[in-house]
Write a structure and sequence with these properties.
Chains A, B, C, D: Belongs to the glycosyl hydrolase 4 family. The structure is a homotetramer. By secondary structure, chain A is of the alpha/beta class. Chain A is 48% helix and 16% strand. Chain A contains 16 helices and twelve strands.
């Protein structure tokens, strides 16, 4: 690191990149990123150029000595990197559109990271991330991989199991957003709130909540129940929880839990939307991205445009910068990330990937012992974990039977017959990105 | 036991009783039951008399010195008992009809032991069984309680948690039936087959299968897949498993697993049946029972009529006799029963009730260590266990919120909103048998 | 806490108290202790007055508005306390002299916190601490008990098991001292060193060591081996580790581990010392204390005298102030304390007391997940834990057989016959303080 | 197995062999051993001939068609074997003499299977057993290895960890002898007694005891205490347990536990014996063996001589025959053997070798779930397990540091300094049999 940090962003042509660049600029004094390599694939070259040029203008305006490199040569980029971030989308938005629309034909939820959609995103993504890890082992063995490619939990599980490169962290903006939203609910500033997060990615629970260090878990659950409220995030319908359910649950669910505790309602809503509009959320994102790239092309734009914050994944890149900052500077602050369990959630397997509060140190994240997940939620969490583990296996082996098993035991599918039908159609539809199955 | 064994059967007026009586008669030499007390409640008095008189005729014909006592006074019966069996139905068949029909209105499965129906059967049954245990602690502290009242797993869980009386065994005929059916599939006699059973009641898996002691697990799964077969029992539709699913699962599911791995198909089938016939299975059982009692009244009948074997729960009573025989005679043979886990299924909680192969000794059942349930099934099993635990709590506390929580996390419900609606209607419908909630 | 904090120090007449007072004075701005109650028993009244008056002079000189209260009325003191610290010695130094000298007669180590001595100190101390907890439940239920009375691990175990009051933390200065000493070995400032501590009190290991955040565990072990060094503390002979042993051990032992990995040498040394001098360490401490109190009586002394730092337990009180400060101000820094395990050491029982790095928050210490203790040490640690658990039981029940069992399984005793002899003599010797056994 | 069973006995020249031969003759009808191959090394050729000829005379007299093959060619013998038993002594009796005498110089117990002696026996034996397993994988992959070479627990641990061949069972006669002795104590026939055994080899406990199926654990412990008795076996001094200790322990220790709960007394006794006689037990065994072989040479001897029963390991071979019989005939009876834990002892590691009651089936031993070992013993058991694991590692790697670590943590050593001295002398003394260290 003698000449400053080298950061590599794979999927650098993503519309999120300006947030990442802004994050590094803001933190330059304490986190001197001298080289930021934006890497993409040939299909993403145009986007890479647009985003890369914006990044260069941003850096120039800010007056920091950060070099922006644009490349399609991943190996060149990875050489001697200090940190690697990944924000890829194998098959790009068209693949997401398939993930979100085909399942609906079979009366199944079409969603990017849960159910059938998440399953296929996992199958496409895991082999690519494994390749990246393999290259890192050779080219930058001391670098941390910070993955915010979804499904981040399943990807982390697969990498912990099958990659030699062990410096891997999965990152998600959900815990951060939940804290923000709970602060709003309480009408206090977010920094006064602390939540003990534990679970899996997109299946994380707030076990206990604190205001100025004082445990307010019970009051908060009552307030959520009383205001008939819920904790929202951008891309999930805002159905409220039954007050008595949320109180008995005893822990704060994340927005994605609606898929599991309001399965019927979420599915019905999605089917209705799709029938009405003929569009999935992926179509919508497609439009937003087009607009963003139109903005990014403006040679007068020299900073992250406000509109980016409207995008679902806002704060993702900020979270990544925070994490890199805390590692580089051994900050020992607390962040919620996806890592090996190691007993931090006492009733989940020791070697599983979990999403849990960690102390962030130069030596990486150290999970804080959260005790046992309560009886009310451990079953569902274990079931999703089993789904992730078997999907990871199938993603690597390309074993059809394993894939069918994984899909059948997913609680949003629960049918071997339907699972087979949707599996067959989607394997065919994503064939180009799933060579392991053919 | 100086004057021979005293056995008490609570719910003695059940149509199953003749099988039990036959079982004791057959085993009289090694298992000398001198007193069989059939106990029932006032609403069941007429049935008790019919069944009791048949029992007396059976005993007389067999020429064994077994005294048959009929009583409505449970405490009198329990005094100094050696074994107590329970086969009660709180609210009788009309309650079952409600359990099976109301959920259908909400698009939920209506079934006696799974989902909403099993939940309400549990709420009604658990307090009664706890009362019985309480009386046993006082009146016959050394007696074994052998419960075959459904939902047997949930009842065992509740008794292990809340009863002082610790000599409790839950019994089910599913493992026995599975062995019979697998033997048929293999065209061999059942005694040559041995299955390593582990899981929960109505959620038990055959982990490994043996023919003449040789492990044939893989061949058997292939055969099930090849013949597109399934393992049937009387009261569950005979949908077959997808061949690739069953092979990847790697263990043999029980018939009830169809509710969880073919949820859509099972529900659709049931809704269609109900629409067509306007009847649930409970209605059908009601008819069968009427016919049986008509037969039982015949003063010339002196043995168990063949027709009883058509009834769903066949072999239940035989299983109970076998179990009592093995305990009394310290037989150290293997039977599959519901007991405290104690590490026998290494990845389920130590103190949970599980259904597992046990060595049956005079000191009770000793579970055999089965290792860990495979990843593919542990999540679902833990979820059902969580459901059972929270239902047990709610059954005793009468806490509405806990009840709502239990119902919502049941994988056949998965909706807090729908759970609330069906809970409200059914609490009202079963009000007379659920005083704890009012 | 409206009028500032109320802190109660039980055993306030201890020679350590001036360090505690100095600690509170130094931190007054952030940690406004308005009332410090020093409590003692009638036998300690004179010391209490001497120390209390010194404390008053210290406060006056420092010009902080801290009220010093001296009392023999514990209940009055505890009323509405915010923090309670305990530094008692049941039976005072004469009891310690017995603890350290009688075992030597039987060829057993005489030591205050390990082996027979620690066992008897535990038997005398646990009931008193339980009484204090009981009073706290009534008089100051929200207060934290910070116990630095030895054997601190065993006391924490007993309180976690038997006290209703759950806000209990055990504190020891060993981890702090080890960090200091390792820093010296590395010739760096202590704040640059971080150690992952995990184990039990006086049986804690440094699992991994960091310099400026970088893992230097292997280098450090090599250096300890190379310099034929050891990590010392005041009151334990400085025997060095065998270089090959320490490297194979793979973790950094604490000074007290010499009793277990150099049992023969430590015992031989102690026996020789005792024969030569006719004195135990307790005798020596007795002298030091007399000198300290002579100093404390000097009306011109207005600050903590330097000589106090020569005393074995230096930094104990400073550690207590740090802990209280971090809780009160929700500092979320890392301190090594004795708390309930909750999975932080994955291969020790979930509910055991362990000594482990914790994040210190307003809601108390949150242990950091340390994973599993290595195979090389888990057996010994579990054995000491078993000893602590059974001693706790015996301390409360007064059961002779349990006491004999605990003593026999202690690895420094390992003989039922010798255990019985020394138990009988020492029960008699400490009779006045062990009413539960008579 | 078409032409009957082929059994291979490695170390066939052992003085125990006639018992084995007798066992096979007695069971011939149900267990048709057609070929018994006795294998030995060149140094044992003479003994092999003597024993082999006796075996032939025994078979002839009995009139069973069992072929006795004598060979020094292990590979030839192993080809297509059905069962392989091992009863080897690497370095023969002279090595045992060193194991038992050198430690005494350092004030350490000299014993064949515990402490320093057991450690070295393990180092010598493990590599040979691994070689045998390796050959079995190639030459008889379906055969069971039944090892009764000591230290049987450590050997089983090593084979479970490092051998590909998984059909391995460790066998010991201690549980069998304990049952015999407890029956004598109770003045009943042994078959009426059943003990729940769980622990490690030579560190097994009787958790519960049954007479005619009734739990008599408490009464039995009281009787052991009252009669000031102990459970003896041939080769261990008959020191009695302190009555109050044994009652508090709550479980029945095995004879070898005296080394851990009477360490001082056992060591003192051994030192005194050695000083008096100048001989260890090994010397004594040496004499006995010479006498036995003199007997075996008598051409008129056609059966197992009575004198063999005086030898310490009596019933070992009978135990082996019983085990082979139960596997071959899928007897599903209960025997206590050394196998992979798999949750049967819930608070020991899942994959560890343990000695525990198993159901013996054609598919091998299935451990019975024994629950958790009590707090009073789990620490010591885990410590011995850790010792076994690290010794296994050292035996294979030949790593000096690991060897020193293993020896230091052994509770009969407990000193890194003394461990180093005795290690150095004994490595040199056994150099010929420990090539991995040189």
């Amino acid at each position: 690191m003698s000449k400053g940090l080298k950061v590599v962003t794979i999927g650098g042509g993503s519309s999120y990149t300006p947030e990442l660049v802004e994050g590094f600029i803001k933190r330059y004094t304490s986190l001197p990123v001298r080289e930021l390599w934006l890497v993409d694939i040939p299909e993403g070259e145009e986007k890479l150029k647009i985003v890369g040029n914006l990044a260069k203008r941003m850096v120039k305006k800010a007056g920091v000595p950060m070099e922006i490199h644009l490349t399609l040569n991943r190996k060149e980029a990875l050489k001697e990197a200090d940190f690697v971030t990944t924000q890829i989308r194998v098959g790009q938005l068209p693949a997401r559109i398939l993930d979100e629309s085909i399942p609906l034909k079979y009366g199944l939820l079409g969603q990017e990271t849960n159910g059938v959609g998440g399953f296929f995103k996992g199958l496409r993504t895991i082999p690519v991330l494994l390749d990246i890890c393999q290259e890192m082992t050779e080219l930058c063995p001391d670098a941390w991989l910070i993955n915010f490619t979804n499904p981040a939990g399943m990807v982390t599980e697969a990498l912990l199991r099958y990659a030699k490169h062990k410096k891997v962290i999965g990152l998600c903006n959900v815990p951060f957003s939940m804290t923000q939203n709970l602060a709003k609910l309480l009408h206090v500033e977010a920094h006064r709130i602390h939540i003990d997060f534990a679970g899996l990615n997109h299946m994380v629970f707030g076990l206990r909540a604190y205001l100025d260090g004082k445990d307010i878990s019970q009051e908060l659950l009552k307030q959520i129940a009383r205001e008939n409220s819920s904790i929202h995030i951008k891309n999930i319908p805002e159905f409220n929880w039954e007050p008595q359910f949320i109180q008995a649950l005893g822990v704060i669910p994340c927005p994605y839990h609606r898929y599991y505790y309001k399965t019927k309602e979420m599915l019905a809503d999605q089917l209705q939307q799709f029938q009405k509009e003929g569009k999935t959320r992926a179509h919508h994102v497609y439009e937003v991205e087009k607009e963003l790239f139109a903005l990014y092309q403006d040679p007068n734009l020299q900073e992250k445009p406000k509109q980016l914050e409207q995008r679902g994944g806002a704060y993702y890149s900020d979270a990544a910068c925070n994490l890199i900052d805390a590692i580089y500077n051994d900050k020992k602050n607390i962040q919620t990330v996806n890592v090996e369990n190691r007993g931090s959630i006492a009733n989940l397997p020791y070697h599983s990937a979990v999403e849990v509060n960690c102390l962030i140190t130069k030596d990486g994240p150290k999970p804080i012992a959260m005790g046992e997940l309560p009886t009310s939620v451990i079953g569902l969490v274990q079931q999703i974990k089993s789904f992730e583990v078997i999907t990871s296996e199938a993603a690597i082996s390309g074993d059809y039977n394993q894939a069918l098993l994984a899909l059948t035991i997913n609680p949003l599918v629960s049918s071997d017959e339907t699972a087979k039908k949707v599996l067959d159609e989607m394997l065919e539809a994503h064939r180009a990105y799933l060579p392991q199955f053919f």
